[in-house]
Amino acid sequence: MVSLPAGPAGGLVRSLPPESYLADFAGAEFIDWFARCSAAARCRVTRTPLTELRRWRFDADTGNLGHDSGAFFVVEGLQVRTGYGPVREWSQPIINQPEIGILGMLVKEVDGVPYCLVQAKIEPGNHNGIQVSPTVQATRSNYTRIHQGRSTRYLEYFTDPGAGRTLVDVLQSEQGSWFLRKRNRNMVVQVTEDVPAGEDHHWLPLPELRRLLRIDGLVNMDTRTVLACLPADTFPASQPVPAGDAASALVLSTTGRGRALNDTATVLRWFTGAKSRHELSAHRIPLRDLPGWRSTPEQITHEDGRHFSIIGVTAEVGNREVAAWDQPLLYPEGRGVVAFVIKVIEGVAHLLVHARFQPGLLDGMEMGPTVQCVPENYPDGPPRFLDYVLNAPRERVLYNAVLAEEGGRFYHSQNNYLLVEAGDDFPTAVPEDYCWMTAHQLTLLLRHGYYVNVEARSLLACLQSW
C-alpha cells in the first residue's frame, strides 16, 4: 500500500504535495486540486490541559466534561456488565453526543459516469491534516451554527425536500466502544443540475474515489460509511467480470448474482439469537466515579496505560466555519486491526461476520468484521482469528491499508484494515457468534440502521475498491 506522510503530534500540520503517491490511483484533475488544497491548508493543533480548555468545564457534581453552551458533546462515565466475552465488567469514559449529524454526498451522472462531490477537510485529530470527505460532514451543533461561524455549504441539498433525488437516507451508528448511542444520518442525493464546486470541493468520478481507498489515510471514515450504504446496483459497473478467480467470486458476492450459504431469514435468526443469548447492560455514571481511571488537569488515562486517554487540544484551522476552538479528544493507545476473513463457497465470496457487542451501541450489538481489536489491549492472548489474519500469506491478502477514524472526536486514531482470503484449511463451520454472509447481504441490511457497525461498513467500502 501507498502511505501518506504522517503529521507531527503538535504544531503545524500539513499534507505534502500528493503527486508522488497519487498518480497510480487518480487522474490529473484530482491530483492538481488536492495539491492546491494541501498547499493552502493551515491546521495548528496543540495539546492543552483539560482544565484550560476554553468554554469547556468539569461539572462540579459529576465531574463530567462538557461545553458551556450545553451543545456538542459530553465526556462522562459508563458502567458495563455483560455475559459476553472474557471481560464481564468494566468502567470507562465515553463520549455522549446525542444529536444527529449529517454525512451527505452529492452525486451526478456525466456521460453515464457517476461523480461524487467530495471535500478536502481538516479535522483536529487527523494525523495528516487533510483528508477526502463527503460533500457535507457536520454535527447538528455545527450546521445550526451554535459556534456562530459560517454556514455549511451545500447543506440545503440534504435538508430541503425536493432538492434532489434521494438514493440513501439512513441513520447509522458510529464507534460503539467510544460513543454512547451516537448516530449520523448517512445520505446520498443525486442531482441533475449543474452544482459548482467550491475551492475546497471537487467533482470526482465514483470509480476513482473507490480506488483512492487503497491509499493509507486519504479517504476519511465518513466518506467510507456513506459509500458503503450506496446499493451496488445504483451505479452498476460496466466492465466485464473475469471468470473462475477471486475477482469473480467477489463480484458475485457484491452484486447478489450468486447463491448465499445462508439466506436472509437464516441470517436474521442468527443475529437475533446472538443478541438474545447475552446479558448486556450499560449505565451512565459520573466521570469522577470511574474506578481504574486517573484524572489529572492534563488528561484522563487508564491506570494500566492501555485502551485510550481523554486529552485536550487547541485547534486553528484555516478552512473551517470557525477558525479556532478548544475541545477534548479521545486518544487511542495503539493501532487497531479490522479484518474480514473471506471464503469462496460454491463460487461466491462470503465474509465471516461477527455479532459484536459494543457498550455504546443503541441495541448493544451489531454485525462487525471477523476481527476488530487493538492487539495491545489483549496481554493474555490474542482474540479469535487475529493470528490468522496477521499471519496470512501475502498472496491471500486482498486488501491492506491503514485508514484513519473520525478526526473530529479522536486524536490520531488509525486501524489496519484487511481483507484476507481463507485457505482450504479454514472451516465452513464457525463459532455461534459468527456467520458467513455475502457482501450483497450486508449491503441490503444497510438500508436499515443498527445492523452493521461502522468498522464493517468501512471494510465494505474497501471491498468495492478491490
UniProtKB/TrEMBL annotation:
<dbReference type="Pfam" id="PF03559">
    <property type="entry name" value="Hexose_dehydrat"/>
</dbReference>
<dbReference type="GO" id="GO:0016829">
    <property type="term" value="F:lyase activity"/>
</dbReference>
<protein>
    <submittedName>
        <fullName>NDP-hexose 2,3-dehydratase</fullName>
    </submittedName>
</protein>
<feature type="domain" description="dTDP-4-dehydro-6-deoxy-alpha-D-glucopyranose 2,3-dehydratase">
    <location>
        <begin position="28"/>
        <end position="230"/>
    </location>
</feature>
<dbReference type="InterPro" id="IPR005212">
    <property type="entry name" value="EvaA-like"/>
</dbReference>
<feature type="domain" description="dTDP-4-dehydro-6-deoxy-alpha-D-glucopyranose 2,3-dehydratase">
    <location>
        <begin position="265"/>
        <end position="463"/>
    </location>
</feature>
<dbReference type="InterPro" id="IPR038153">
    <property type="entry name" value="EvaA-like_sf"/>
</dbReference>
